[in-house]
Design brief:
Elements: E1 5-6, H1 21-30, E2 35-38, H2 58-75, E3 78-86, H3 92-99, E4 106-110, E5 113-115, E6 118-119, H4 126-132, H5 135-151, E7 157-158, H6 176-189, E8 192-196, H7 211-219, E9 224-227, H8 240-249, E10 254-259, E11 262-267
Parallel strand pairs: 1-2, 2-3, 3-4, 4-7, 7-8, 8-9
Antiparallel strand pairs: 5-6, 10-11
Helix pairs in contact: 1-2, 5-6, 6-7
The structure holds zinc ion (2 copies).
One zinc ion binds at residues 10, 14, 16, 41, 231.
Length: 268
């Protein structure tokens, strides 16, 4: 993974990741990454769940990333400041506030919440979800929200596109109808998306997104980023060989980089 950038990783402030950001920088340097970006789970406008940083911890987040950035300078790793932001309908004003709270390099848009009660990738919500919805309904709901998130134009790139497959739930048949609205929205808004390698570590054992999505995105000229979604230092850059191979198979020859919310492309 010589020379690549990993833009999706967390900090202990979200209560389900471990290791000081400096340790993430060290693994990045060992693995030949030249750029990483922290993108921990953003605070919500109110207490919402126990798997994100609180607004009180937000200043500490900026400090941690600054500590990592200084450490990266000594190791030849550029460190960027990002945030993984949960999209829920009606939260746009709050997300707008977040955009002004720091000098971000990028904001990642994520859909984890299908409803305010149901988190699509939470193991403790799985049985409820399976009781209330068929896989087709989960996918319809998810992709509708994903498209709405893109259309807010609040995000530089979108995270793990087909996240609902995490535990293996995928509708049968051609999936491109689920993807279509989001692909058009990415194209129309000039938003990028990521290949997220965390799916390799989950029951589905695949990259997010599937090859079908990746190929259609390439045909539509949608910019691409790769992220490990590391929640521990040793996960930094994990699965990048697989992700890069998939990107090339789909026809990608360039990956996006972000600095101060400006996008550039580099050869891969
Ligand atoms: Zn997480
Ligand atoms: Zn993440």
């Amino acid at each position: 993974m010589q020379g690549f950038a990993d833009y999706h990783m967390h900090t202990p402030l979200c209560h389900h990741a471990e290791g000081h950001p400096r340790a993430y920088v060290e693994v990045a340097a060992e693995r030949g990454l030249t750029e990483i970006g922290f993108s921990c789970h953003s605070p919500m406008m109110a207490e919402f769940d126990d798997w994100r940083m609180s607004i009180e911890d937000f200043p500490r987040y900026l400090e941690l990333v600054e500590e990592a950035r200084a450490h990266g300078e000594t190791l030849g790793v550029t460190v960027r400041l990002g945030l993984e932001v949960d999209y829920l309908p009606g939260h746009d004003p709050w997300i707008g506030e977040l955009t002004k709270m720091a000098s971000w390099d990028y904001l990642i848009g994520s859909v984890h919440y299908l409803t305010t009660e149901l988190v699509v990738d939470h193991p403790e919500h799985l049985s409820q979800m399976e009781k209330d919805y068929r896989p087709e309904q989960v996918w319809e709901l998810y992709w509708e929200l994903y498209e709405r998130a893109i259309r807010t134009r609040l995000f530089d790139f979108m995270a793990h596109p087909d996240l609902p497959k995490k535990f293996g739930s995928v509708p049968g048949g051609d999936l491109s109808n689920y993807y279509a609205g989001s692909l058009i929205a990415l194209h129309e808004t000039g938003t990028a998306f990521e290949i997220n390698t965390a799916g390799l570590r989950k029951p589905i054992g695949e990259l997010y997104p599937a090859m079908g999505f990746l190929s259609l995105a390439r045909q539509a000229g949608i910019p691409l980023v790769i992220g490990s979604d590391a929640h521990a230092p040793e996960e930094v850059g994990e699965g990048f060989d697989r992700a890069i191979a998939a990107a090339k198979d789909a026809g990608y020859s360039q990956l996006a980089r972000f600095k101060q919310r400006e996008r550039t492309l580099t050869d891969c």
